[in-house]
Design a protein that fits this description.
Helix content: 25-40%
Distance between the termini: 37 Å
Structural class: alpha+beta
Strand content: 15-25%
Number of helices: 6
Strand order of the largest sheet: 1-3-4-2-5
Oligomer: single chain
Order of helices and strands: EEHEEHEHEHEEHEH
Radius of gyration: 17 Å
Shape: globular
Length: 210
């Protein structure tokens, strides 16, 4: 299909945008968070947020909201299958924009678990330099065991269930550890969000679930 030529609406970067096609949630729906990997970076894989909201609404999502331009969407859906929702959204992005974009979808309850299960105390930690690397499956502990933590100090990491928590005091882009948490190194789809974004998405998920 020919890529959409719709022009994204302007809005403050930190403000969650809300689709005009959204509808109230009901007790039969579940709140989800969609995480798209590698979009709107360096002019590549451009996905306007209004288009993303429309695509999710077209798949049956309601109360659709996006946060920032890096591919974060919060919505409710009657389907109780995050893997199916992720696959459907990947297909919709391909059909509408001609892009291959990996997507992870987490239920609000799962994001609650991620936040509550943070093994770091966060004392004196800058949330913009603390990342959660979300994975498409259980953490490959055998691959992490091959990493010598001392070789990457002051960076630190801890394994969760389907995510890796990592602190990069000198910044993500200056880290020698960060490149180890990629699809190729881990054998899974991996997409990272900083702690400020993770906690904001959980807050939006709580509001969306209403």
């Amino acid at each position: 299909m020919t890529p959409s030529t719709r022009t994204p609406a302007t809005s403050p970067a930190e403000s969650p945008d809300v689709s005009p096609t959204t509808s109230p949630s009901t007790s039969s729906t579940t709140a989800y968070i969609a995480l798209l990997r590698g979009i709107n970076v360096g002019g590549r894989n451009k996905v306007p947020m209004p288009v993303l909201r429309d695509l999710i609404a077209g798949l049956g999502g309601s109360r659709v909201r996006t946060h920032l331009q890096s591919g974060n969407a919060v919505f409710t859906h009657a389907l109780r299958d995050p893997l199916r929702l992720a696959a459907d959204l990947e297909q919709a992005l391909s059909a509408e924009l001609g892009l291959t974009v990996p997507v992870l979808v987490r239920a609000r309850e799962d994001l609650r678990r991620v936040v509550a299960g943070n093994p770091f105390t966060m004392d004196a930690i800058d949330g913009s330099r603390f990342m959660v690397v979300f994975l498409s499956g259980p953490v490959p502990l055998d691959r992490l065991a091959a990493i010598d933590p001392a070789a990457y100090a002051p960076d630190e990491f801890r394994a969760g269930d389907t995510e890796i928590y990592a602190h990069f005091p000198d910044g993500f882009h200056n880290s020698k550890l960060a490149p180890l948490f990629t699809d190729r190194r881990l054998g899974l789809i991996a997409t990272a969000r900083n702690w400020n974004t993770v906690t904001k998405l959980l807050a939006l998920g709580e509001e969306t679930a209403g």
